[in-house]
Write a structure and sequence with these properties.
With 387 residues, the protein is mainly α. It contains 15 helices and no strands. It has one domain: Growth Hormone, Chain: A (Up-down Bundle).
């Protein structure tokens, strides 16, 4: 039996350390850019509408790539994962070479493509290399690696931008992207060809599950893509915003570690609970004049967001029957749609009605996400009782 037919053999014979290292460094760069580019656009004299449009454009290729299930169904070797870092280098090069708004938008679009590959391919690798009993632990460790990068990225980028300037910061982030590429390329394992999968099967009752992830991701998109620029417009220091988002990533790290230790069961009830619980930290952001509420809110949101995505991923890969690459593709497609649609609307709302109304809009999205997944749970409970 060759390695492609026995993925567990590769899993035990290849050290995952290069994978973890590449993910951490990729997280540093992508989180730094996600935070820094909206601030950069604001410093160039543009408003919330332009910032929001940039956040929306970041999701364009993310959505298209997530929708490319045939591409992922042919994934054979983990070294293909390193392409995400090369695409990231391209985005940073554009930011270094031009400060025109159209060029920045092109860089954000390419950044979205890189982000899609960083997330989707590693989720497929985890699903195909590890059994359901081990999946929560491995996914938690990968999520913790990603969050470790996100912990460092915003504060590092904010500090560097304040001390050496944004353009020089971009150069350093480019160098880190190359390190991520070589690290990911070093990790090599053959993965399942999909011959043992049960085919693409989907129950129509699962659609609310994906709808919920789309709505919840719209709220998250506002927090990570629009709020940094809005906070800068409200007079916050660049470094303070960066430190606040590092706290967001730190709490995400703790959330992923709790999943790795199997502390929370991936059930629909717990998924809806994460959506409803996100309302409280969002309310704290209603008054941006109180600076202390930004880091406090982001700490709570970071943990809730990591738990929501961990639980939805594990529920999907453990409970839906069929090729996991198909469901991961659809899952990330719905997440990308949330990130594609809401930032531009949130930016327009912030410009015309104020940041407080934008936060109210985010709160409504969080509540709606919880209602949708809870309705799915109740429907399944009724179906079970009747059968």
């Amino acid at each position: 039996m060759n390695s492609s037919e026995n993925p567990l053999q590769d899993r035990h014979s290849v050290s995952p350390r290069p994978l973890y290292t590449g993910v951490i460094i990729g997280g540093i760069v992508i989180s730094g850019l996600t935070y820094l580019v909206p601030v950069y656009i604001k410093l160039l004299g543009y408003g919330g509408t332009e910032i929001g449009l940039g956040g929306t454009l970041t999701s364009v290729l993310y959505v298209l790539i997530a929708f490319s299930y045939p591409l992922y169904s042919r994934l054979r070797n983990t070294r293909q994962y390193s392409s995400s870092a090369l695409i990231l280098c391209t985005a940073i090069l554009i930011l270094i070479l031009s400060n025109d708004l159209p060029a920045i938008y092109v860089a954000q679009i390419i950044l979205g493509a890189s982000l899609a590959l960083y997330i989707i391919i590693v989720e497929i690798i985890i699903t195909k290399l590890y059994s359901p009993d081990e999946r929560a632990k491995i996914y938690g460790f990968i999520g913790a690696s990603w969050s470790s990068g996100y912990l460092v990225g915003p504060s590092l980028s904010g500090y560097l931008a304040d001390t050496i300037g944004i353009q020089h910061t971009f150069v350093l982030l480019l160098a880190l992207s190359l390190v991520s590429f070589f690290s990911l390329f070093w990790f090599k394992a053959e993965i399942s060809t999909g011959a043992k999968e049960r085919g693409v099967k989907e129950n129509k009752t699962s659609q609310p599950f994906f709808t919920s992830t789309c709505i919840f991701s719209g709220m998250v998109a506002i927090i990570v893509s629009v709020l940094p620029g809005i906070a800068k417009g409200a007079g916050y220091e660049t470094s303070f915003i960066g430190y606040s988002y590092s706290l967001f990533s730190f709490s995400r790290l703790l959330g992923f570690l709790s999943v790795a230790r199997g502390k929370i069961r991936p059930s629909l009830r717990n998924i809806s609970l994460m959506s409803f619980a996100s309302v409280f930290p969002l309310i704290l952001l209603y008054n941006l004049d109180e600076k202390i509420f930004l880091p406090i809110s982001l700490i709570m949101l970071g943990a809730l967001v990591s738990l929501y995505y961990s639980l939805t991923y594990l529920y999907m890969t453990n409970n839906l029957s069929g090729d996991p690459a198909y469901f991961i593709s659809k899952y990330e497609f719905n997440i990308g749609i949330g990130f594609l649609i809401t930032p531009v609307f949130a930016g327009i709302i912030a410009d015309h009605y104020g940041p407080s109304v934008m936060i109210i809009f985010s709160t409504i999205l969080s509540i709606a996400s919880g209602i949708v997944v809870e309705s799915m749970r109740l429907r399944l409970c009724r179906s079970s009782s009747l059968s």
